[in-house]
Every structure is written in C-alpha cells, then in structure tokens.
UniProtKB/TrEMBL annotation, chain A:
All residue ranges annotated as the DUF3502 domain in the record: 444-511
Annotated Gly residues bias: 33-45
Protein's recorded name: Aldouronate transport system substrate-binding protein
Region forming the signal peptide: 1-20
Keyword annotations of the record: Signal
Region (Disordered): 27-46
Pfam families: DUF3502, SBP_bac_1
UniProt xrefs under InterPro entries: Bact_solute-bd_prot1 (IPR050490), DUF3502 (IPR022627), SBP (IPR006059)
Automatic annotation (TrEMBL), chain B:
Membrane topology type: Multi-pass membrane protein
Alphabetized Gene3D superfamilies for the sequence: MetI-like
Protein name from the UniProt record: Aldouronate transport system permease protein
Membrane-traversing stretches: 20-39, 89-113, 125-147, 173-199, 220-245, 282-302
Organism expressing this protein natively: Harryflintia acetispora
C-alpha cells in the first residue's frame, strides 16, 4: 500500500512538474508569399515591367472584421500606383520576436517597422537590415520633402537603418491638470502663468487644491509617469539608455550621470515633499492605473504625462474633463523617437523597388489613411474636404460597429498626410510640423550608442535602476538616504564603464561629423 | 538471483523472454510517457550549451560562438547575488517547512471530520486558492494592503487609532506577508497529498490503538505521522529540488514589483526577468536557468543521500 501511494504521488508530481516545465516555443512566423520575378527588374521602375512581389509588415491594434477588405484596397492601390504586388503581414505591437525570426530566417520580407524596444544595434551588427543611405540618395522624393536634411538621421555610423515615423521629435514631460478643480480652488493658471515657471511653483497650487478638496488625490497615475521616474524628455539626451546622459544636450557633449545631477535630485526631493504633504497618491510607486484612467474616474486632480501640441484636447477627449497642460520640459530633438521607423530587410529581393514603394507611401495620403482609418466612405468620411482634413465615422457607424479603426498614427509612416479625427483641431499637423522644426537639437542627434559589448553591465544597471527609480520617483522613500545608495550601486554595477564607452563613441562620432 | 545463475543459458534466455512477455503490456503503457519525456525533457537538454554561447539568430544555437562563462557574470556582478540567493533559499525553505506542518495538520483535521459532505466542502475550500491565478491573488492582497483604500489600514489600524502603514514600501513586513500568502495559496495542494497518504493507512491500526486506550493525540503521534513519513519525505525531497526556483508570480506580482521592497522580495527569477527584460539576451537567461538547475540537482542528491543514511527504504533512489 505504502509503495503504491508513493508511486502514485511520484507520478502525480512528476506529471505536474512536466507540464509546468512546458514552455511555449516561439511560433514560426507565417509563411510569406514567395518573392519572385524580380531578377529582371531594372532601376527605372517603368510601368511596363512586371509588378514586384513585396512583403509589407505593419502593426495592428486588434482584429477588425474588415481587415481583409482593407488589405485588398491597399493591394489594389499599390498595384495601380507603384506596380507592386503587396503581400501584407500584420503583427501585434509586441512583434519583436516575430520580426527577429523573419529577419534572421531569410523569409520573404521587404518593408517592416522597427519599434522603440527593438534591438536596432544588434540588427545592424548582424546584417539583418539594408543600408538605406544609397537608396535614399537615389529614390527619395517624398521622404526628402518630409524630412529634408534629416532623412538619414536614423543611422549608426554611416549605416542608415530606418526612415523615422512622422511624429513629434521629443517626448517632453508636462503636468496635466483638471481645469474645473483649478477654478474651484481659486487658482487661475492663466493669470498666474508667468509665476509658474518651474515644477516647484506647483507646490502652492497643490496646497490650494488639497485644502479645498481634501478627499481628492492631487497627484497620481502610473508608477513610471512622474517627473522623476520618466525616462523620456526632461530636456536631456539619454543616448539610448538611462546610463550616461547629456545634461545640456544643446551645448555640451559631456556624458554624465543623470542620477547624480542637481536636476534629478531636485525632482526626487520635490516628489518627497509632495508625498509627505499628502498630495501624492500613496500607492504611486506600484500603481499601474494610468493618470488618464484615474482622472476619468473622477478623483484625481493632475498627473504627469508626455506632452505635445494640443495635448489638452487629447486629454479632454480621454478624460472627459477640460484640462490645462503645464509644460515642464523644453522639448529637445533627440534619438528617442527616431528609433521608431521603417526599414528594408536584408531579405528583400529587390531593395530598390522596396525603397521606391516606401517613398511612395510617404507621399500617399490614401495609403496612410487605409492603414490607420480604413476605407473612405465605409470606415470614415471627410467631413468637409474642401475646408480641412477632418474625418469622422460615416452615418450610422460608431466605435462599436466600425469594421476597421486603428487610430495608431504614431505607427504609420506619415500620419501628417492622413485625416485628422473629428474633435482634434484642423491645423494639428501644421502645428506639429512647426513644433518639430522650431525644436532645439541635441548635439548627439543622429548618434546611436553601440552597447553590444556591454550587455552584462547594462543588465545589472537595469536591475539597480528598477530597484530605486520608482520608489524615489514617487516620493515614497527618503532621497537623503536612498539617493546616495542608488548611485553607489550604479557605480558598483559598472556605470563608469558605460559612461566612458558612450563618451568615446560620441566623441568619435562628433569628430567625424566635424571633419 | 542465486537460483537463476545455476540455470543453463538457454533456460535463462527463455525466462527472460517469458518475463518480457509478461511485462510487455506494462512497457507499452509506459512508452508514450517515455517518448514524451525524451522529446520534451531530454532532447532540449542539449540546448544548455546556449548558456556558454553568444547567441546569434542567424547561425542558430550550435554554430554561435563560444564565450565561456561570460553569460554567468551578470548573476554575480553586484552584491545582489548574495541577496537573491539568500532570499530564494530562505523563502523556499520556509515555504517547505510551513507547508509541511500546516499541510499535515489540515490533512489530519479534515480526515477526522466524519460528515462526508462537510469533508468535501472543507477539502475544496482549502484547495480553492491553489487554483486562483497569482495576478488575482496579488489584487486580493492589494485589497488588504492598499495604503489609500486597503482593508487593514482603513478598517483595522485607523479605527484602532494606529498610524496607517505604507505596506508596499516597508520591507520589514514582507517576509511574513509572503509566507502567509504562499501558505494560503498552496497549502491546499500539499494537504490533498497528505490526505491521500492518511487514507492509505490501515484502519485496523487505529482500532487496535483505541482498544489499547490511546487517545486521538496519541493515535496521531504514534500511527498517523509515522505512517505518513514516506509521503512526507517524498514531498520534501521533490520540493528541495525546486528550492532554487522561486515562484515568479508570488515574488513579482504580489509585492506589485515595488522597488523599495527588492531587498526582501528579489529572487533569482525576478532578478533575471528585470535585468534581461530590456536586453533580451537568450544566452544570459539560459545561464541563470542552468545555474538554478545545477544547484537544484546537487541539493536533491545531497538531501537524498542524507535520507538514505538514516532510513534507506524511504530514499528516492
């Protein structure tokens, strides 16, 4: 009996652990269409030649019933206008593994998006991507019109790895506040605008709100979104990772440690002050509910978020409250947003044709509309085409019944050509273009740090950062004791080595640019 | 054995054939399991080499260049190595101990319940948390511990006039919280194993003890626990093999990934996840897995060796 029970137990546990040990293997990417008949394609791209079979990958936010129909429309358009037979591969936004497999396995792939989290450096090092430099010189017309001198900005050394997506060129930070609460507390930001310059000027505003609405959370949101936790913007250039940054990127190319800077210390101290005063959501260090969600729920006065022109309109649409945006950072053009872009895979049978197609996409309003909003007349309509670019749902269609509606403008090549959804200002793209073109530029704009040799250090630095940055950034621990410990552990994890390497690579890049 | 060695060779072969014939259906039954284990658990072992390589997708695992022990460096690069090893080992040992003691206790209680329906209800109730996703568990815990709206702060500490506690930034409470949560979640499972063990004990032993005048406590100490010993040892040995694998969800989700708690919640699995999430280096992740398996393997051998010394028939091998 004893033996039998033992045997039974063993089997049960073994079986259980065997199932637990099962890990899902990476699924093989779907079979792409065979690219062929391109051998004869000449450089000219004349209408007389055979259509080129081109595999085009793009990101979709979800499954829409009319996906196939939209794809057919995209195919028809591409065939008619650039003589290309599109084979469309749609991927979810976490598509990195699939892209890596397709790039590495010689599968048919011509044009693909690169995401912010993509391992661009290793793609380039492993030779997965086509160098777009010479192709741009030869074929860029629309792209040149959009970007001018900056069309080759997404490069590593001389190797151009991507064409950036058309959007804002820095993710600057700001505080988004509910206007009705401001009015209720008797704070007139419009009137006091000249008094509010820096972040610490908000303290009296928070105090007034806290006094008038004691039950309301004054500052809250997602743990990664506080002025001290965020890893975008801040008027610095983080050179691709948080370890070794340019504190004054417009004037000074010295690589320094952000977490030792006065600016960072001031921000964590201010967060601590707010936290102790009771303004900050107590669970902020672990909160995963975005400020937008909390504000919509009605008990949050303000949150920190990335801002751009007309952010207040966007905030009002998302939260249902009229909002005031207080900009804390001056935006500075840096590489952070340029890592999102469109590339041509090394697998491409004919990169020249792929570039011609991509250049056409950057000039085709219709194609960008198809990618983002679907088919005109069925999924969206222009409300007043003669006047402006505004679009809306057709009669009788709404968010729940529409067959295709991506609304992911930041992931399509050129959203500035596409329609602007109703409710946004009609001059959105003009203002955005102005915003980008007047933005100051980091000295390192165009520089990409090659950290392939430092993966051990970057891994340990990441884990040190995770340990401190959100606790400090939410004000829930005392910076007087924790900040020195944080920096000590960063240096122990090899920060100096990364900073040195960044400085060396940056200096070499700057020298080359000069010469 | 002695007998068979005196038999002539042809008889021996005959016996072997007979034996094979007799056991053939059993082997056949075993076959799918063996094939499964071979494909799923043994073939991938060769992939361990990736822990010693700089993995390149284009060339594949076996043609990637060797890098020696470089992938292991990050595990030991900072003094975190000590913290995560200590946390992993101590928490798991505490879990094994608490689960064993409470598991046996609950198993005995449940077996003593004479009403069949109540017994089933208790048994299911205690198993229920085991079936809940750890994400949901983490939010149940959050409902208790939330600073702004949590049950403990709002309904217990504040009405009693005590200061509320910022649970997710105070390290000192977490060893206890994690042990309580883990016990609540998993004790039902080990309890079931022990109930199966108790069900297998010969009732005649209890009847004899009762006649001899032994009380309930005496029966438990002298019959139930000694008879459960093989089950206990098996379960503990199997758990020790996993002592270097932490329950990722428990250590990552339940403390809400709060940085201020890392000193008491960081275990190997969470450390590796946090360090490599942004880098995606397969070689380094495999190195961590390899290190865990190696330590687990050694621990199983050592503890089995100890068991064998003291009670040979209870050892696994």
């Amino acid at each position: 009996m004893k033996k039998r029970i033992l045997a039974f137990l063993l089997t049960a546990v073994m079986a259980a652990s065997a199932f637990a040990g099962c890990s899902s293997k990476g699924e093989s990417a779907p079979e792409g269409g065979q690219a062929g008949s391109s051998g004869a394609a000449g450089a000219g791209g004349e209408a007389a030649e055979e259509p080129y079979d081109l595999t085009f990958m793009y990101i979709v936010g979800g499954d829409y019933p009319d996906q196939a129909e939209v794809e057919q429309a995209m195919k028809d358009l591409a065939l008619a206008e650039v003589n290309v037979n599109l084979n469309i591969v749609t991927v979810p936004s976490s598509y990195e593994n699939q892209l890596m497999l397709m790039l590495s396995s010689n599968e048919a792939l011509d044009v693909c998006p690169l995401g912010v989290q993509s391992n661009v450096v290793s793609y380039v090092a492993n030779g997965y991507l086509e160098d777009l430099g010479p192709l741009l010189d030869k074929y860029a017309k629309n792209i040149k019109e959009v970007y001018g001198d900056e069309m080759k900005i997404a490069s590593m050394g001389d190797f151009v790895y991507a064409i950036p997506m058309n959007k804002e060129r820095d993710y600057a930070g700001g505080i988004i506040m509910r206007k009705d609460i401001l009015d209720g507390a008797g704070v007139d930001v419009g009137e006091n605008a000249e008094k509010l310059k820096t972040l610490s000027d908000l303290t009296p505003v928070f105090a007034a709100v806290h006094e008038k609405y004691p039950d309301m959370t004054v500052f809250g949101g997602d743990y990664a979104y506080t002025p001290a936790s965020i890893h975008y913007g801040r008027s610095i250039d983080n050179l691709g990772s948080e370890f070794g940054v340019l504190l004054d990127p417009v004037n000074d190319s010295t690589v320094s440690n952000w977490y030792e800077s006065d600016k960072y210390r001031e921000r964590v101290e201010l967060m601590r002050e707010w936290y102790l005063a009771g303004y900050v959501q107590k669970d902020l260090a672990t909160s995963t509910d975005s400020g937008t969600t909390q504000m919509r729920a009605g008990n949050l006065f303000c949150d920190f978020d990335l801002v751009k022109p007309y952010r207040d309109v966007e905030a009002e649409q998302a939260t249902g409250f009229e909002c005031v945006v207080f900009n804390i950072d001056e935006p500075i053009k840096n590489m952070g947003t340029v890592l999102d872009g469109w590339s041509i895979a090394h697998n491409s049978k004919d990169p020249e044709r792929a570039m011609q197609f991509l250049d056409w996409v950057y000039g085709s309003a219709e194609f960008n509309n198809l990618m983002n909003w679907g088919i005109e007349g069925k999924h969206f309509v222009y409300t007043n085409k003669a006047e402006n670019n505004l679009i809306a749902f057709p009669e009788g269609i709404n968010m729940d019944t529409v067959g295709y509606h991506q609304n992911r403008g930041w992931e399509i090549p050129n959203q500035f050509l596409a329609g602007i959804w109703e409710g946004n200002p009609a001059d959105l793209w003009d203002v955005m273009t102005e915003y980008n073109s007047t933005m100051k530029k980091s000295l390192a704009y165009g520089f990409l740090f090659n950290g392939v040799e430092f993966e051990t250090e970057l891994a340990t630095l990441n884990s040190v950062r995770e340990k401190y940055v959100y606790a400090l950034g939410s004000g829930s621990v005392d910076p007087a004791t924790e900040l020195p410990k944080f920096n000590e552990e960063l240096y122990a994890a090899g920060l100096e080595k990364i900073m040195q390497a960044k400085q060396e690579q940056l200096d070499a890049w700057l020298a080359k640019k000069q010469g | 054995m002695k007998q068979s060695s005196t038999l002539p060779p042809e008889r021996k072969a005959q016996r072997r054939r007979n034996k094979l014939k007799k056991w053939a259906p059993a082997y056949l039954l075993m076959l799918p399991g063996v094939v499964y284990f071979f494909i799923n658990n043994y073939i991938p072992i060769t992939g361990l080499v990736v822990a010693f390589k700089k993995y390149r997708v284009d060339t594949g695992i076996y043609l990637s260049p060797w890098v020696g022990l470089k992938n292991f460096e990050f595990l030991f690069a900072t003094n975190d190595a000590f913290v995560i090893t200590r946390n992993t080992l101590l928490y798991n040992l505490a879990f094994i101990l608490v689960n064993m003691v409470l598991g046996i206790a609950f198993a005995i209680f449940i077996c003593e319940v004479s009403n069949k329906w109540l017994k089933k209800i208790y048994q299911s109730a205690i198993l229920f948390p085991f079936l809940i996703s750890i994400i949901i568990v983490s939010y149940i815990v959050f409902a208790f511990l939330s600073v702004d709206n949590g049950l403990i702060n709002k309904s217990l500490l504040e009405p009693l006039g005590m200061d509320s506690v910022a649970w997710y930034t105070e390290q000192k409470y977490w060893p206890a919280i994690l042990i309580i949560v883990n016990t609540w979640k998993t004790v039902g499972y080990s309890c079931i194993l022990y109930i199966a063990g108790i069900a297998g004990i010969d009732r005649a032993l209890y009847e004899a003890a009762e006649i001899d005048g032994a009380g309930k406590l005496r029966q438990i100490c002298s019959i139930t626990i000694p008879c459960l010993m093989p089950t206990i040892i098996t379960i503990v040995l199997l758990n020790i093999g996993h002592v270097f694998y932490a329950n990722f969800g428990l250590f990552y989700q339940v403390p809400m990934n709060s940085g201020a708690l890392f000193d008491v919640t960081n275990v190997i699995d969470t450390y590796v996840y946090r360090a490599l999430l942004k880098i995606g280096n397969i070689g380094m992740a495999s190195a961590a897995g390899f290190y865990q398996s190696l330590v687990g393997f050694i621990l199983v051998l050592v503890s089995n060796g100890i068991v064998r010394r003291f009670s040979r028939e209870n050892a696994l091998f």
